[in-house]
């Protein structure tokens, strides 16, 4: 291994060398570095296949080699994978070099493993051995074993604590964690609404992320968080980005939270955010011709075929909205040319659904897919009697609650629903909205009012630390957010009867199990997201029986 001499460095010298925004929270960096160098940011694994899994770490060869600095010597890192935690049965090992070109992060795609098997892994460099991580390979084709995921999304460091990560790290029954986006947030302290909700802490850098160094610093700051480190060390993760890994409401050529006049070229910023994400997460690169391709497909035995979608790189600009990306009156969302996925990804998904032999076809989906409308629609069975031209106009929702999600892309959503309707076992797993939902997916939105025909089901996980709009309103005007939540629940009863469960206040996570007879989702919700020691407890369980395409209440939590 290479030896690196560690020279003393003062706080003033370090700050001057790094420049504005390129250092972690310096008050805690010396302690973090001193306690765990060179493996300051922990270990992780991800993208499990039956015979492969990616293992990850970040090496800090010297105190000045903080994330985003470009500093630090190239360092040889040894790695080992064992069938036991004591490493008496090492089955794979090797070395890799960490250098500044990838911010000293290390990705090893370990092969030659056995399906559905627990492994332990570790790294060593500069005479130090990392903490031990635990991972698991996917089941091979032919396996009928149930598959169980932890499902998370939306971890705004400034707005709360990662209590759901702490809880999931203690579970020993999970095959993987699905992270559905917003792993980090780009905002300056306070975010879009100033200091509401009240920030219990602030992520470095203390300004909005714009450059590659900014995003690297942000990822490094998040990975100093103990609950996140423990989660990664406990389970393999399958992750995709949403918008905040770059900027709020990202689309193909820009974002709501990007001003080219003051924040520079969009493509440069977007590439920076994506590159930092791919460097700092244990993700397998699947396309040598497209370094940023993140939509991918993983199989877990005969139970689960998993499509992880990219709903940001290829989407067209969403319709204009009334408030903060929410609410729209009119029919621009029915533009037949509007796209969330792009044509190639839509074809990849639709053709894959049609050909899949798995019992459950699962979509790792960033933003809500199920319809959310304001005011009840006229049933399609009635409008259809008025002739095709008038019926087409009346079939459009009068007012939509959201348009930045799939409700702003009605034509493409309907094409995907049509593809879902041709097969059994489609389950959409979703994040983004910071609320909990269990919903059926109507084959035709206005037809469902009378025929109750569903094409699939959707389970939505709340934010890990990001509060809902209702919660933020409660912080400004106590009780008003709870009233808004009651109004939205009433609207679901009247206008969105496919929604079977909704909880709009608390943060948390889901555990979802796919078994031969049914899929079940359990919600675990946090009592107080602004308290790092808050309790988290089971709140609800909903299921869909195999072949039913319906959502019903489960009798008890998974054990």
From TrEMBL:
UniProt-listed Gene3D superfamilies: PhoD-like phosphatase (3.60.21.70), Purple acid phosphatase-like, N-terminal (2.60.40.380)
Pfam families in alphabetical order: PhoD, PhoD_N
CDD domains documented for this protein: MPP_PhoD
Phospholipase D N-terminal domain mapped to chain residues: 41-137
Superkingdom of origin: Bacteria
SUPFAM superfamilies hit by this protein: Metallo-dependent phosphatases
Every PhoD-like phosphatase metallophosphatase domain range: 149-523
InterPro entries cross-referenced by the UniProt entry: Metallo-depent_PP-like, PhoD-like_MPP, PhoD-like_sf, PhoD_N, Phospholipid_Metab_Enz, TAT_signal
Name of protein: Alkaline phosphatase D family protein
Organism from which the protein derives: Nocardioides dubius
């Amino acid at each position: 291994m290479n030896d690196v001499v560690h020279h003393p460095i003062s706080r003033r010298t370090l700050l001057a060398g790094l420049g504005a925004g390129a250092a972690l929270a310096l008050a805690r960096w010396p302690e973090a570095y001193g306690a765990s160098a060179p493996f300051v940011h922990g270990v992780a694994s991800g993208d499990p296949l039956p015979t492969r899994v990616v293992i990850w770490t970040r090496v800090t060869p010297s105190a000045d080699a903080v994330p985003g600095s470009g500093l630090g010597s190239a360092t040889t890192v040894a790695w080992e994978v064992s069938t036991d935690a004591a490493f008496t049965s090492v089955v794979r090992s090797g070395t890799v070099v960490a250098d500044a070109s990838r911010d000293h992060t290390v990705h090893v795609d370990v092969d030659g493993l056995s399906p559905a098997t627990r492994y332990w892994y570790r790294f060593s460099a500069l005479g130090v051995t990392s903490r031990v991580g635990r991972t698991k390979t996917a089941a091979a084709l032919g396996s009928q074993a149930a598959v169980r995921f932890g499902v998370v999304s939306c971890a705004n460091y400034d707005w709360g604590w990662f209590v759901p990560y702490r809880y999931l790290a203690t579970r020993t029954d999970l095959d993987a964690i699905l992270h559905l986006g917003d792993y980090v947030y780009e905002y300056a302290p306070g975010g879009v609404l100033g200091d509401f909700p009240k920030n219990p802490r602030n992520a470095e850098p203390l300004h909005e992320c714009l450059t590659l160094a900014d995003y690297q610093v942000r990822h490094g700051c998040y990975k100093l968080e103990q609950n996140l480190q423990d989660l990664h060390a406990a389970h393999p993760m399958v992750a995709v980005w949403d918008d905040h890994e770059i900027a709020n409401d990202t689309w193909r050529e820009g974002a709501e939270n990007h001003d080219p006049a003051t924040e520079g070229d969009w493509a440069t910023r977007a590439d920076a955010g994506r590159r930092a994400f791919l460097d700092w997460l244990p993700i397998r690169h699947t396309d040598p011709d497209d370094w940023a391709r993140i939509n991918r497909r993983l199989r877990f035995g005969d139970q689960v075929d998993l499509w992880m979608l990219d709903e940001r790189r290829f989407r067209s600009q969403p319709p204009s909205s009334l408030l903060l990306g929410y609410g729209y009156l009119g029919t621009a969302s029915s533009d037949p040319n509007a796209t969330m996925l792009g044509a190639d990804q839509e074809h990849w998904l639709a053709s894959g659904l049609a050909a899949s032999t798995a019992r459950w076809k699962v979509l790792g989906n960033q933003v809500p897919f199920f319809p959310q409308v304001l005011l009840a629609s006229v049933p399609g069975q009635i409008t259809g009697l008025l002739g095709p031209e008038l019926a087409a106009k009346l079939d459009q929702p009068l007012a939509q609650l959201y348009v930045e999600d799939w409700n702003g892309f009605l034509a493409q959503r309907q094409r995907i629903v049509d593809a879902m309707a041709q097969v059994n076992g489609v389950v959409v797993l979703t994040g983004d909205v910071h609320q909990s939902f269990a919903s059926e997916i109507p084959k035709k939105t206005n037809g469902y009012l009378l025929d109750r025909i569903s094409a699939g089901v959707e389970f939505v996980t709340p934010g890990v630390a990001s509060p809902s709009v209702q919660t933020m309103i409660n912080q400004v005007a106590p009780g008003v957010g709870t009233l808004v939540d009651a109004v939205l629940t009433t609207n679901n009863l009247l206008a969105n009867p496919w929604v079977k469960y909704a909880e709009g206040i608390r943060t948390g996570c889901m555990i979802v199990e796919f078994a031969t007879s049914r899929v079940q989702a359990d919600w675990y919700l946090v009592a107080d997201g602004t308290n790092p020691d808050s309790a988290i407890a089971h709140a609800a369980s909903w299921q869909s029986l195999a072949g039913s395409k319906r959502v019903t209440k489960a009798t008890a939590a998974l054990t």
